[in-house]
Amino acid sequence: MDCFIGALKKYADFTGRARRKEYWMFYLIYMLLLIVVYALDAVIGMGLLSIVFTLGMFIPSISIATRRLHDTSRSGWWQLIAFIPVIGFIILVIFLAQDSHGTNDFGVSSKY
Questions:
Q1: pLDDT for res 107
Q2: Calpha distance 61→82 (Å, rounded)
Q3: What is the three-class DSSP state of 107?
Q4: 89, 55, 71, 56: which is closest to 22 by C-alpha?
Q5: Among 54, 56, 83, 79, which residue's Cα sits nearest to residue 66?
Q6: Which of 26, 53, 92, 106 is 20 to 30 A away from residue 35, measured at CA?
Q7: Residue 111: per-residue pLDDT
Q8: Residue 75 per-residue DSSP state
Q9: What is the pTM of this model?
Q10: What is the per-residue burial (b if ≥16 Cβ within 10 Å, else e) of 34-51?
């Protein structure tokens, strides 16, 4: 939960780096909360909560993915590769799952 709260505190911080654990824990908690919100929407029967939650988490999701790509020595603009049908999403997941690099243009790795 600390990774999720930490990512929300860096809401629009597109600088620096994010380790694999920080990114994937954020994504896991985000997906679990999204399932809960969808369930609440199904009970209520509106669909408004899921829209508000998704829009509210849009910028933090992009910013933590940018910091994760920085950790692998890539620019955050690589996220746009996901717009290429099928193969783009697979390539992006591979980039996000790669191990951290040492010191790069985006700072010193906290791993070393």
A1: 73
A2: 14
A3: strand
A4: 71
A5: 79
A6: 92
A7: 63
A8: -
A9: 0.87
A10: eeebeeebeeeeeeeebe
